[in-house]
Amino acid sequence: MQELTTTRHNPQIDPFTTVWGWEIPVYLFLGGMVAGMMIIAGYFLFKEKHKNSDSIANYIPLISIVFLSLGMGSLFLDLEHKLFVWRLYTTFKISSPMSWGAWILILVYPLIIANMLMVPPSFIVDRIPQVNKITDYINARPRLIQNIGIGNMLFGGMLGVYTGVLLSTMGSRPLWNTAILWVLFLISGLSTAAAFVHMIAKNVQERELLAKADNGFIVVEMFVIALMLIGLATSSQAQIQAAQLLLGGPYTAPFWVFVVGMGLILPLVIQLLAVNHKIKHTPVAPIMVILGGLILRFIIVAAGQYSHYFNAHFK
Amino acid sequence: MARYGMVIDTKKCVGCMDCVVACKTENNVPEGHNRDWIVTVVNGKFPTVNLEIQSQRCNHCDNTPCVACCPTGASHVHEVGKVVLVEHNMCIGCKACLAACPYDARFINPEGYADKCTFCIHRVEKGELPACVSVCPTHCMSFGDLDDPNSEVSRLIASRKNHQLIPEAGTQPRIFYLT
């Protein structure tokens, strides 16, 4: 038996780490969803969906900008030394995923805006008519449109990957310290993005396509979750204990009920029935997928901070 | 160039917390926060019980996850003694370093920046010992250059049985506990 007694009681640190509250999971969720939407938007550009006036492709960039800005706002709220936020952009630290992320976020905006300017929203054109010149310039150049599509997919992928790498590089937190975390966050981002776009799409063909794509993403995500847990549970002692947080420990019930049950399996069943025309497409399944993705981020961030080399002693 | 480290003799430490008080006084550590603290480890089962008292603080690791993850360069390895420090005016308070430290040695100062033990570098640069070492009534703590084979710390590590904290985290901590 080993018993530890400590005189330390630092805020947000003891008895276990809670330095990241709601802001970081919300940001990781929104960042992941925008990453997924950029990849979907890039794909739609290649399929020239933006030429249909009722295509949802025309609205994705604007929604992406709003969500990304909300996510960055949430990230800003998490900072403890807010007035120094500009320091992020006076340097680039190659070993810091957060530095990569700060720069990726800056590079993502012009790509989404370029996509948006192909079919600019009317409220922008009404206020700034000069936008039409840029729209004409882009639309006259098919190669440029292709490159904007590639850029959106590439940087969308980087954004999605980085949200996972941010956590997985922390060797101090055994639950996060798994190389598959970025795959989980990227696929979850794609899944929630497909669900959201599916929910708001008017074009029937696009809805079918997005529901089918989301079903595929959900199946892959379930495999990734299983592989992540197998990987952790067959690793060293600290990681076995980390896996146990989700396999019998305090985060087990919310994880399996809200993330796997209501966030993946149920919506998969509903959407399988919908794409096979047994039932109508309703917003129920997409909402469940989106909430599941949000709760996944909350659980991973909280359980990851709880997981620790000393964890067994503080139980 | 020196590589400062600390050796703490757990056979001598009585857990009086003088080091904790000295640090708080020397560095004006805000109320409710600690840069160093005492951990008591009880091993075994009665009647074969072993007690080890550890004065803990930032381990000023050779392999620094806190410096690696810092997006602004606020967390850095100081040129003097390779001590790990935080530049307050560069820190944005993102808390990545708090999450990255396996020893949970850092905290957010109420002013917003990441705070931690500095090995009292302001004293060391003047040729003095860190406050915690200088006040220890049992002289259980030694401070010096780990790269100098003739320093007190190097000789203690070479001659006495010792261990580091969580070596499996791969951080190569520079505080050694004599047992």
What does this 3D model show about the protein?
- The complex is a heterodimer of chains A (315) and B (179).
- Chain A is built from 12 helices and 1 strand, in the order E-H-H-H-H-H-H-H-H-H-H-H-H.
- Chain A is mostly helical and 315 residues long.
- In chain A, helix 1 runs antiparallel to helix 2, helix 1 packs across helix 7 and helix 6 (142-168) crosses helix 7 (181-200).
- The longest helix of chain A has 30 residues, at 204-233.
- The mean pLDDT of chain A is 94.
- Chain B is α+β, with helices and mostly antiparallel strands and 179 residues long.
- Chain B has a single domain (4-178), classed as Alpha-Beta Plaits.
- In chain B, 21% of the residues lie in helices and 25% in strands.
- Chain B has helices at residues 18-27, 65-69, 96-100, 121-124, 131-135, 152-159; strands at residues 4-9, 37-45, 48-56, 75-77, 84-86, 107-108, 114-115, 141-145, 162-163, 175-178.
- In chain B, strand 2 and strand 3 form a beta hairpin.
- Chain B is globular and about 50 Å long.
- Chains A and B meet through strand 1 and helix 3 of A and strand 2, helix 2, helix 3 and strand 6 of B.
- Strand 1 of chain A pairs antiparallel with strand 2 of chain B.
